[in-house]
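SAMPLE LOG
Freezer: B-3
Tube label: C17
Construct: single chain, 247 aa
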Amino acid sequence: MTPPQLIRSAHERGITTLTLDSPANRNALSAQLVGELGDALSSCAKDPAVRAVLLTHTGGTFCAGADLRSPPDPGAFVGLMRAVVELPKPVVARVTGHVRAGGLGLLGACDISAAGPGASFAFTESHLGLAPAVISMPLLPRLDPRGATRYYLTGERFDAAEAVRIGLLTAAGDDVDDTLTPVLDGLRRASPQGLAESKRLVTARVLDAFDRYAQDLVERSASLFASAEAREGMTAFLERRDPAWVW
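STRUCTURE (predicted):
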């Protein structure tokens, strides 16, 4: 039996909306979702009718991070984040729910991002015996260093206003669609060449991070996932209990 598709696509006035549609597991990054989203982005890159991509979600979570029951290969997830950064068309994130762990890497790879008042964010990796390894490539070039240090280490949850302050989000507002209206209008008025070349300028440092660190961080991520501490952390998470190291 063919599994249901996890990415929905719609197009209107130059904007293709890609919707993460796997609410049963909080739009977690499964191998299937990563593959489908990569294919959808590739189609957008080839379609001259697409001026920009709007990335959004169903349910109360934008993306919960890696699917612990069916995780993607770390290299495949790195390829997905790089595809967002390299796409010659802007990718705009529309967030109305929670974003956790690897989902923050997907969010950070987007060029522009906005969230509503119901959004929350957390780098939960340190609580699982892991680290925000591969997602650092799109994030650290863009985040305030003090903010990154605090939230990488503590795993604290923070809101949309704080996400704007530390550079994770572009904007936050009471109505995310109102917030994004002038953004999408501006993108519709821009030329394809102007958008592509402007994006190359603002993503140069991010792509340099991928070129420099991808192999090391993929290996580090795989090593962490295979460690005894991570096994305890992920088992505790799935069993809804504290891991052994909690005081």
